């Protein structure tokens, strides 16, 4: 029997994310994830969790972000993701594979994610990150005042190092 005719257990994939200001990078990771699983569940991070993780509220409210993601024909289900610990997401909606951008690969947070997923019997698959656009870049463009403190700190660091002119 060849591989195409063999029976296999359906694979449920999970993609967590804020999906704020939905853009090409979001679309790319969701499409790539769907190609690698039979059922795609997307965890849209709650407003409260985004504030805890990123220190600021999303531009687009949770319900609208969920509506946008659920309108994609290749997304089978959308759930609200409540915490950075994806074991909680797994307990609420079990999945086989968690898909994440490869900007996490080889980082301490990626290693932690891999260890936590191994605890529940899921694996992490890294997919190409789209560096040309991100919600942070979009937000920096449309609301630069949100980044004034970061920019000031960066300039101070450069001046202290002798880089600034």
What is shown here, in short?
Keywords: Nucleotidyltransferase, Transferase. The chain has a five-stranded parallel sheet with strand order 3-2-1-4-5, with helices on both faces.
Structure description:
The protein is of the alpha/beta class and 165 residues long. The chain is 42% helix and 17% strand. The chain has seven helices and five strands. Strand 1 (12-17), helix 1 (24-34) and strand 2 (39-45) form a beta-alpha-beta unit. The longest helix has 14 residues, at 148-161. It starts with 11 loop residues before the first strand and ends with a helix.
Q: Please mark out the parts with pLDDT under 50 across 5 or more consecutive residues, or reply none.
A: 1-5, 158-165
Q: How many individual β-strands?
A: 5
Overall mean pLDDT score? 85
Seen as an oligomer or otherwise, the chain set is: single chain
Q: Numbering strands along the chain, what is their spatial order in the largest sheet?
A: 3-2-1-4-5
Largest sheet: 5 strands, parallel
What gross morphology would you assign? globular
Number of helical elements: 7
Helix content: 40-55%
Rounded to an integer in angstroms, the radius of gyration calculated over CA atoms is 18 Å
* Strand percent estimate: 15-25%
- Rounded to the nearest angstrom, the distance between the terminal CA atoms is 69 Å
């Amino acid at each position: 029997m060849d591989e195409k005719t063999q029976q296999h257990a359906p694979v449920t994939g999970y993609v967590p994310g804020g999906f704020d200001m939905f853009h090409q990078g979001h679309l790319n990771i969701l499409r790539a994830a769907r190609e690698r699983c039979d059922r795609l569940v997307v965890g849209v991070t709650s407003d409260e969790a985004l504030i805890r993780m990123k220190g600021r509220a999303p531009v687009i409210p949770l319900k609208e972000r969920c509506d946008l993601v659920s309108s994609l024909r290749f997304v089978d289900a959308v759930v609200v993701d409540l915490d950075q610990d994806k074991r909680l997401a797994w307990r609420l909606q079990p999945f086989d594979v968690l898909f994440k951008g490869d900007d996490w690969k080889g980082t301490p947070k990626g290693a932690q994610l891999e260890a936590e997923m191994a605890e529940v019997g899921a694996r992490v698959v890294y997919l190409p990150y789209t560096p040309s656009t991100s919600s942070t870049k979009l937000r920096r463009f449309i609301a630069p005042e949100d980044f004034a403190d970061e920019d000031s700190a960066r300039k101070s660091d450069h001046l202290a190092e002798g880089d600034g002119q």
